[in-house]
Structures are given as structure tokens and as C-alpha cells.
Amino acid sequence: MDIQLINIGFGNIVSANRVVAIVSPESAPIKRIITDARDRGQLIDATYGRRTRAVIVTDSSHIILSAIQPETVAHRFVIHKNGAAREI
């Protein structure tokens, strides 16, 4: 299994194989997910004090906050014909 890494801003990197979703933090359900993750100790804040613009959900139920747009994070994935994702 090949490990693929995605830059989520400010030198922070996430394993692309573990990412389930990249969403905007604006909706009430996502805000609830963030609060629940904070209470469980599974919130990773990678915003460096800036405004949260993307919420990354992993397969281990960790929630990662990023200061870059979800579209920007998503564009860093390139789907190849074999289905593997990698950063550009």
C-alpha cells in the first residue's frame, strides 16, 4: 500500500488514504461534529489561529481543521485511472 500525503496548509500534511471527507465548517451539523471531536480529544487544529475554512474527516473519526478552502484541498488530489489518489 502506497502512502499518499496531502498538504493542508502551513506545512501540515495528512495521509490521503485516511481522508473520508473534506467539508465546509458553516453548517450546524459540522459545527456539532467539531464540538464532539473536541470533547473526545480527537480534534486537530491546523489553522494556526486563522479562520477555519475546511474540515477534514478521517476514517479514524479524527477531525482536522484547516485554514485553506475545501476546494483547494480537493484539487490537491489527482485521481489516476487505477483509482489511487496523490498530491500534485
Structure, described:
- This protein is 22% helix and 38% strand.
- It has two helices and eight strands, in the order βββαβββαββ.
- A hairpin with a 4-residue loop joins β5 and β6 (63-66).
- The protein has helices spanning 28-40, 70-75, and strands at 5-9, 12-15, 19-23, 43-46, 54-58, 63-66, 77-79, 85-87.
- The chain is an alpha+beta fold and 88 residues long.
- It has a four-stranded mixed β-sheet with strand order 3-5-6-4.
Provide a concise account of the structure shown.
The protein contains 2 helices and 8 strands, in the order βββαβββαββ. By secondary structure, it is of the alpha+beta class. A 4-stranded mixed β-sheet has the order 3-5-6-4. The chain has a two-stranded antiparallel sheet with strand order 1-2. A two-stranded antiparallel ribbon has the order 7-8.
Q: Tell the overall outline.
A: globular
Taking strands numbered 1, 2, ... along the chain, how are they ordered across the largest sheet? Answer: 3-5-6-4
Helical amount among residues, as a percent range? 10-25%
Q: What's the order of the H and E elements?
A: EEEHEEEHEE
Task: Calculate Rg over CA atoms.
Answer: 13 Å
Derived from helix and strand composition plus strand pairing, the structural class reads: alpha+beta
Secondary structure: number of strands:
8
Report how far the terminal alpha carbons are from each other: 19 Å
Beta strand %: 35-45%
Largest sheet: 4 strands, mixed
Low-confidence parts: none
Give me the number of helical elements. 2
- Indicate the mean pLDDT: 89
